[in-house]
Structures are given as C-alpha cells and as structure tokens.
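Colleagues,

For the teaching module next term, I've prepared a clean inverse folding example: a structure given as tokens, and then the sequence designed for it. I'd like students to try predicting residues themselves before seeing the answer, so please don't circulate the second half yet.
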C-alpha cells in the first residue's frame, strides 16, 4: 500500500468540486507510460467495495504519481475524502499505452476527464510543433492546469457548456481528423464513449490512423474478473484491462 500525499480540488468553482487531483507516493516502479492506468482502493472500504477503481496515470516524478479524478459515484467520492497520510492500496501500472511517433504530426483528442493521460503524454513526449491537443470540457479553463499543457502543445479548446455545443464539438472533431488524415498524422483519443465513437467514425471515414482509450468498468484490472470485456474488430472478446485500454479505432467495438 502507498500513502496519500495530497488531495487537491481542481479550480475553485462549484462545478469544479467534483474534479480533483490525487497525489500518491510512488511505489518502486521502473516507470509508466501514458495510457497505462492504476487500480486504487482505500484500505478502509467495507467488504462490498473490495475491488478497486481504475484511473489513468496523469503525471508524476520519481517520488509520486498524480491522478486526475472526477467524483461521480460512491467510490470516487470516498477517494475525494482521503486525507494526506491515509493508506491506499494501489496496483499497477497496468495495461498498454498510446503510440509515440516523434516524426508524425500527432493530435490528442480529449473529452472531459479523458484529458488525464494526455498530461502525461505531453510531459513525457514533448514534441514542439508536432503535437496538438483538442480538449472538449465543460469546466472553466482555470479548472485544469490547461496553461501547463498549452505551453507544450498547440492547444485548442472547446467548452461543452450546453447540449447545442455538442454539434460544434462533432464538427470540430470532423475538421481536425480530416486535417490530420491529409497530413498523414496520428490521432489519439480519450473520453466518454459517445466522444470516442465520433472519433472512430471520422477516423474510418477519412482514413487516418487513430487509437482510442476505453473507459470500461473494471474491478480487478488484471484479467481475473472478466468485468471489462468488449469485442475487437473481428467480433472476438478482448479484455480492456490486459489487452487495452488503448486500441486501434478500427479494431474495437465501442
Ligand atoms: Fe477484471 Fe478486466 S477488470 S478482467
């Protein structure tokens, strides 16, 4: 188990209250790659919450790792209530990771909390002039260390303030994916399932190589519970925790 170092709300607004960063002691790992995740479980949970919750690795250094979390259910609200010094069970890093092609124009597409792995991507693989980020998020920009990312990449942002904006987001995704298809680029996406389906659809239409990171429910994270199963492009079952969470968009059912 590891210790909680910091639990910090992201931003000050009321809406931002459900988003927070959790910084934990880093176990004795060799390292981790953007797209990989960890499972965490506060050791004080009751028996009905024995399983962990999966979170993308977001940032870190030799001494700590940081996760970006949205408190949407009982488990994540309990994680939000942790205090520095509390003990947490954490296992990982788990799963595969996003492709890195330094000479290929690369577009990162993040929907909401899907921004988490891309902070790590930008920090570990700075590619000035060759890396762009599109973020569709309903929070004010100061609610996420957006400035940190925008220093490292060509950053475009769209706020999902009301349902009608969804059409704008879809059209923005279409335009960006078409642009990266034209320049032989690589598209990496993480976000809610409808966001990923849109990316998958346009990637197929415009013929661009794209990877998507799935956010299926997980309990064990290590291939033991079969709770995360989906199908690949041939219709065969695949486990998101061990064969993903990152898949080529043309080879997974969303
Ligand atoms: Fe248990 Fe994938 S989460 S098998």
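(Answer key — instructors only)
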């Amino acid at each position: 188990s590891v210790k909680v170092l910091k639990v910090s709300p992201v931003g000050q607004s009321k809406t931002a209250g459900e988003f927070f960063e959790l910084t934990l002691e880093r176990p004795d790992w060799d390292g981790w790659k953007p797209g990989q995740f960890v499972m965490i479980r506060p050791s004080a949970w009751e028996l009905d919450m024995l399983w962990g919750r999966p979170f993308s690795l977001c940032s870190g250094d030799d001494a700590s790792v940081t996760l970006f979390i949205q408190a949407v259910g009982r488990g994540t609200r309990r994680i939000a209530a942790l205090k520095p010094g509390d003990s947490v069970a954490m296992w990982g890093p788990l799963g595969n990771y996003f492709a890195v092609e330094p000479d290929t124009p690369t577009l990162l597409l993040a929907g909401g909390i899907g921004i988490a792995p891309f902070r790590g991507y930008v920090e570990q693989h700075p590619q000035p002039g060759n890396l762009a980020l599109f973020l569709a998020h309903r929070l004010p920009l100061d609610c996420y260390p957006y400035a940190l990312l925008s220093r490292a990449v060509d950053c475009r942002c769209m706020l999902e303030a009301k349902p009608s904006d969804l059409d704008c987001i879809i059209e923005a995704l279409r335009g960006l994916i078409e642009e990266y298809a034209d320049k032989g680029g690589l598209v990496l996406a993480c976000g809610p399932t409808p966001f990923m389906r849109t990316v998958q659809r346009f990637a197929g239409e415009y013929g661009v190589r794209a990877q998507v990171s799935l956010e299926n429910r997980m309990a064990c994270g290590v291939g033991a519970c079969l709770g995360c199963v989906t199908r690949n492009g041939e219709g065969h079952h695949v486990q998101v925790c061990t064969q993903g969470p990152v898949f080529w968009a043309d080879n997974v059912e969303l």
